[in-house]
Amino acid sequence: MPSLDALDHIGDERNGGHVLVVDDNPDDRKLLRRILESAQHRVVEASGGAEAIDKITDDLPRLVVLDLMMPDVDGFAVLEHLKRDRITREIPIVVVTAKDLGKDDRARLQQRTEALLQKGLFDQQQLLTDVTAALARIAVGGP
């Protein structure tokens, strides 16, 4: 399993030491938690967008892993909330979604997120590999 050591370099002194995983699917949250915790990173979970916004306000994460399709406040609304606020706009966001994205949504997300990963197109190991690669790209500041 690839290392997530690169995640140590994300953020700065103002950011918290945890990764916030936002997904209404408990199995997906568990999967993402497992990979992040295996690399010794503290994970906080939110089961919906409103809960995520509350948790981010209470304790800034160093990274947000965000699902787009949630029943209460969707990931697009969470993303807009974070990017609108000067305190949270610099928090890196990795979107992991099962949503079939149109050209406009994809372009909008690529401008506002560090990585966009599609659920359901690969098995669990491939998803974990892609999440790891996205985190490594964030740490080195490149595509």
Q: What is the compact description of this entry?
A:
With 143 residues, the protein is α/β, with parallel strands linked by helices. It is built from 5 helices and 5 strands.
Describe the structure.
This protein has one domain: Rossmann fold. The chain has a 5-stranded parallel sheet with strand order 2-1-3-4-5, sandwiched between helices. The longest helix has 17 residues, at 124-140. The protein contains 5 helices and 5 strands; from the N terminus they run βαβαβαβαβα. 31% of the residues are buried. Strand 1, helix 1 (26-38) and strand 2 (42-46) form a beta-alpha-beta unit. The protein is 42% helix and 16% strand.
CATH class, named Alpha Beta
CATH topology: Rossmann fold
Tally the structural domains: 1
- Tell me the radius of gyration: 14 Å
CATH architecture: 3-Layer(aba) Sandwich
Helix segment tally: 5
β content, as a range? Answer: 15-25%
Distance between the termini: 21 Å
Strand order of the largest sheet: 2-1-3-4-5
Helix/strand class? alpha/beta
Q: Total strand count, please?
A: 5
SSE diagram, text form:
Layout: E1 18-22, H1 26-38, E2 42-46, H2 49-58, E3 63-66, H3 75-84, E4 93-97, H4 103-112, E5 115-118, H5 124-140
Parallel strand pairs: 1-2, 1-3, 3-4, 4-5
Helix pairs in contact: 2-3
Q: Any key phrases for this structure?
A:
Rossmann fold, 5 helices, 5 strands, disordered N terminus
